Amino acid sequence: MIEKLRARAWNPGLRFDTAEVPLAWIEEQFGRRHLERVHRQRVPCNSHRTIGLKAQTEEVSGYFADAPRGPLFPPATPREIESAERTIGRPLPELLRRVYTEVGDGGFGPDTGLASLTSVRRAPGHLTDWPCAVQEHERGRRAGLPASWLYLADAGCTVEWHVSLLAADNPVLLVDADGWAPGRGEGPHDGIRRAVASLRQWLWDWAEFGDVRAEELGLARPR
What we know:
This is SMI1/KNR4 family protein. By secondary structure, the chain is an alpha+beta fold.
C-alpha cells in the first residue's frame, strides 16, 4: 500500500482529487472547441488562467506527464512524529505513522489532502501554512470533539475527516462541525455523516482512485 500511495502522492497531477491546468495549454494542445467542452465539466478553480479538473483526465495526464515526481512536503522525521504524539496524547496508528514518514508530511490525499503533523509546511505559491493536524486536534478538543479523534483533512464547508485513534481498525469519520448542537443534547457523534471501516480502507480506496465517500457504513460509535 505504501508504494501505491507514494506513486499517487508524488505525482503532482494525481496527489489530490483535482489538479489545475492552464487554459492556454489546453487550447494549444487540444483546440478551442475542446477547451469549451472542458469548461462545461470543470470543478472550482482558483484562477481565471487555470481550470480545476479531476485527476486522471487526459488534460491533467498530459500537462503533468513530464513534471518532476516527489512529495509536496518531505516525509516527517521520527522526532516530529514523537513530538506530535506527545501533544496529541496518543500514539499514531502504525499505518498512519508510515504514511507520514515514508510518503510525505501531508499534502496529498482525499479532498484537500492530509494535514501535516508540523506547523511549518507551506506549499509553493501559497500565502499561508498548510493545515496542521496537531493544531486542528487541539481546536477540535476545545470545540468538544473526543480527544481520540485526530483531524486528517478538510472536506469542504464545515465537514472534516477524522480518524479514531482508539476504536478497532481506526475507522475514518466524516464529521460535520455544524451537524450537532450541545444545546439540544447532541454530541459529536451526531455530526458523523459517513464512516469508513478502517484507516487502511480509506487510504486504499484513495490510492486505487476510488471514492472514499461512496459508501456509508453502520458502525459502532467510534471512540
